[in-house]
Amino acid sequence: MIAAGPSPIACHQIESFPTRPHPMKRQRMHTLIVVVVTVLAAGIAGTFVLSLTADRPAGLGVHDGRLTEVPSSPNCVSTYASTKLHGIQPLVFDGNPDRALEKVRALVSTMRGATLVEAKSDYLYVEFRSQMFRFVDDVEFFVDARTNQIHFRSASRTGHSDLGVNRARMERIRKLFETRSRDL
Q: How is the chain split into domains, by residue range?
């Protein structure tokens, strides 16, 4: 029996050079890329305009000794929320409640994008604006002098998801607050 091997013709046929796509395929690919880029740019521009024009939410503040409930969307956290998605632990302090809230006010004032909107003896309302898209998050702090806790609520003003930005910010504030509390 004769062993079958590749014929010289088959080897020659294997070697081929890539060819350029047909002009119609290139035109379709170009059109698809233009459409995708246009849709993305329009979405980003729309989100940017929405973030600039969104009004402050009504109903913020302390009501019946509590901060306002958070919406069902995942772009918020609160010390009053009972779900894992929204719940977060309050800040705990020893000593004078006024001094504890002043610590929060001082550390928040050093954070990028923060603007103090309202300050009372037991309450702070701060807006955080993101650098790139100018999204606004509404952040509130409320001192409960009976339990030596500072409750807070942080929620994005627009959109559905915040990719964990509100939780990360509040945990950063917690870390700074605890560090400064030890330093005093």
A: 24-53, 67-183
CA 9 to chain centre: 62
Spatial distance between the Cα atoms of 116 and 109, rounded to a whole number of angstroms: 7
pLDDT digits (tens, 9 = 90+) for 59-104: 999 999 999 999 899 999 999 999 999 999 999 999 999 999 999 9
Q: Which residue type does 7 have?
A: S
Distance separating alpha carbons of residues 48 and 135, to the nearest angstrom: 7
- What amino acid is encoded at 146 in this protein? R
pTM to 2 decimal places:
0.72
What is the rounded CA–CA span in Å between residue 170 and residue 56? 20
CATH T-level assignment (fold) for domain 67-183: TATA-Binding Protein (3.30.310)
CA dist 175 and 138 (Å) reads: 20
| CA 72 remoteness from chain centre | 15
3-state SS string over 26-92?
HHHHHHHHHHHHHHHHHHHHHHHHHHHHCCCCCCCCEECCEECCCCCCCCEEECCCCCCCCECCCEE
Please answer whether residues 108 and 54 qualify as being in contact, where contact means their C-beta atoms are separated by less than 8 angstroms. no
